[in-house]
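Tip: read the tokens left to right.
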């Protein structure tokens, strides 16, 4: 029996029950996850694609997935709503390539509250969501997030320092405490319980309930005034003014509307745009725009339902009502799914008339315009990138289009902490998953040429590595063009490395000098000077600047780590909390070194046995 016949046999054996199905490739990787009221009937529609059929009746996405699929599994559920929940969990776990998904969903900016920390942080993030934290967003852009964080910092005195534990290495409060924007949990001026109540207020604010915060601040200001604590009252007044400024900025008011999300959608062949107008307490708090891909062959109901699962499943709070264009029979399933997430009833419905209907139509129009703008932007960007790559090929005399370009730079401030960077552009855009950093250890002193040689040798030697432990997908592909930052000297180093490894015929190489933006080519004594607005030169500059940024960032990290080294690092039985306790008790590392055994045993939170081991360790090593 062939592989195609095997998967068709599996499909025919599916039960006539609700559940979730998973198509997998020959390596067992999940290609697509779907749900169905009847697995048997739903999977039967995939038989033409599973047999390798193609044509106008089968969507391109389904035909591609069917050609790659080698097996299908399923999970039976009690009903279709339970299947929706299981489907959402499986999609988030496996990230199948053929499912509907938010485009570049990992890059959307969020505000995260790190509830898993003893003293939670409130931060900007683009990282994948971690269970146990609270996420708010996604926001339209990073500027909106930073503006919100700045407002939060003026209203709530939560800690602004980085790291899971609060405070600096010195153990003393920072400037934020002095200007009344932090309650200094690092110095023990606020208990974890009090700090957690503060964070609860931040969550209430981010949930759109600013009115509650304003009422609480007003009550606090009144109490402080009555108690003749005018400095504290002034602090409450300033924070209240900041909250009122936020509330006044939300102009559109529909007081009878309450808290509701208004959803609009537009779509073309393979993409969709969803607009969400967030009304909170009758105030239009925000408008958010989401782009989705892989929607070809899917119904509007499927696209919206997948959007709700993607976008709302990580939200800490949900409105009690959501207005949608149309979900048909899916209204009840989606409402049940969202109600389970919220912990109370959520109504999902289509508005027939009134203000909600007009806002929903406005959301639809915004979605159409956003989709058109995205399409035009994508087409123009593609044309610009293709023009830049074509120009590079022609200017440099390359045999083919430079689809993969690698840029290298060295960063140092002396003989220590020398680093190099490798950045990758594919098709004229950054491929950040393939970026790599090199800690340079083999060069003597501050020698940029030797550092560049070491980085290039390590990179291209790894391209030929066959040992499994040395395999790195970013080094597997040999670039069409290598760009090094510098002049003739750096170019000579790169040419020598490629000749040494026998890659000089396969890989083009140039250097780009900063001052006059001169392009140096092998075998050519004079530099190539391109027009300042030439798309090819602009692409090279972006690559060079990105390599420089990446190298400098790594170099700063190395120096910062070295600068944070302390005499307290490496003490037996002493972690971050005990280091902080020692510094708070003695005030400085010098005073700690001069302490007697008895003085060490008197440190609060330091067990006697550990104190004696620390004393012996310090005096044994001097």
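Filled-in amino acids:
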């Amino acid at each position: 029996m062939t592989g195609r016949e095997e998967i068709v046999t599996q499909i025919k054996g599916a039960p006539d029950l609700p559940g979730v199905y998973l198509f997998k490739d020959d390596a067992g990787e999940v290609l697509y996850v779907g749900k169905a009221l009847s697995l048997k009937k739903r999977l039967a529609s995939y038989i033409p694609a599973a047999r390798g059929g193609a044509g106008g009746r089968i969507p391109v996405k389904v035909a591609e997935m069917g050609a790659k699929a080698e097996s299908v599994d399923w999970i039976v559920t009690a009903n279709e709503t339970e299947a929706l929940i299981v489907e959402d969990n499986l999609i988030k776990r496996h990230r199948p390539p053929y499912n509907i998904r938010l485009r570049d969903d990992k890059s959307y900016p969020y505000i995260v509250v790190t509830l898993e920390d003893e003293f939670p942080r409130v931060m900007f993030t683009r990282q994948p969501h971690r269970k146990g934290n609270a996420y708010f967003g996604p926001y339209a852009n990073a500027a909106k997030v930073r503006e919100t964080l700045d407002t939060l910092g003026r209203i709530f005195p939560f800690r602004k320092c980085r790291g899971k534990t609060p405070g600096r290495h010195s153990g003393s409060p920072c400037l934020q405490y002095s200007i009344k924007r932090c309650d200094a949990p690092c110095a023990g001026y606020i208990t974890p319980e009090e700090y957690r109540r503060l964070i609860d207020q931040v969550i209430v604010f981010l949930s759109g309930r600013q009115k509650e915060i304003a009422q609480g601040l007003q009550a606090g200001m009144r109490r402080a005034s009555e108690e003749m604590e005018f400095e504290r009252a002034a602090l409450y007044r300033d924070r209240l003014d900041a909250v009122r400024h936020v509330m006044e900025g939300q102009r559109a008011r529909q007081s009878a509307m309450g808290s509701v999300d208004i959803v609009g959608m537009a779509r073309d062949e393979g993409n969709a745009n969803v607009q969400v107008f967030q009304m909170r307490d009758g105030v239009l708090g925000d408008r958010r725009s989401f782009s989705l891909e892989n929607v070809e062959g899917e119904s509007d109901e499927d696209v919206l339902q997948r959007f709700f699962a993607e976008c709302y499943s990580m939200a800490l709070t949900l409105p009690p009502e959501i207005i949608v264009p149309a979900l048909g029979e899916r209204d009840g399933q989606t409402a049940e799914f969202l109600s389970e997430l919220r912990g109370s009833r959520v109504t999902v419905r289509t508005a027939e008339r009134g203000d909600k209907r007009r806002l929903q139509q406005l959301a639809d129009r915004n979605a159409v315009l956003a989709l058109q703008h995205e399409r035009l932007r994508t087409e123009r960007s593609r044309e610009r990138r293709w023009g830049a790559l074509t120009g590079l090929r022609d200017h440099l005399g390359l045999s083919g289009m430079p689809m993969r370009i690698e840029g290298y730079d060295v960063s140092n401030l002396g003989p220590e902490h020398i680093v190099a960077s490798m950045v990758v552009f594919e098709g004229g855009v950054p491929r950040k998953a393939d970026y790599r950093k090199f800690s340079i250890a083999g060069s003597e002193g501050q020698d940029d040429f030797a550092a560049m040689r070491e980085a290039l040798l390590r990179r291209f030697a790894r391209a030929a590595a066959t040992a499994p432990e040395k395999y790195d997908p970013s080094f597997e592909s040999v670039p069409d063009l290598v760009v090094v930052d510098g002049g003739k000297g750096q170019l000579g180093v790169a040419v020598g490395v490629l000749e040494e490894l026998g890659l000089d015929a396969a890989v083009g190489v140039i250097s780009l000098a900063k001052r006059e933006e001169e392009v140096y080519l092998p075998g050519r004594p004079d530099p190539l000077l391109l027009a300042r607005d030439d798309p090819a030169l602009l692409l090279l500059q972006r690559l060079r600047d990105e390599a420089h940024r990446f190298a400098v960032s790594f170099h700063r990290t190395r120096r910062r780590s070295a600068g944070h080294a302390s005499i307290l690092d490496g003490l037996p039985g002493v972690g971050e909390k005990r280091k902080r306790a020692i510094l708070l008790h003695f005030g400085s590392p010098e005073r700690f070194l001069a302490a007697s055994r008895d003085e060490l045993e008197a440190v609060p939170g330091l067990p006697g046995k550990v104190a004696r081991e620390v004393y012996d360790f310090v005096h044994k090593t001097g």
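Confidence is low (pLDDT under 50) at residues 249-255. Residues 576-621 form a domain with the DNA polymerase; domain 1 fold (CATH 1.10.150.20).
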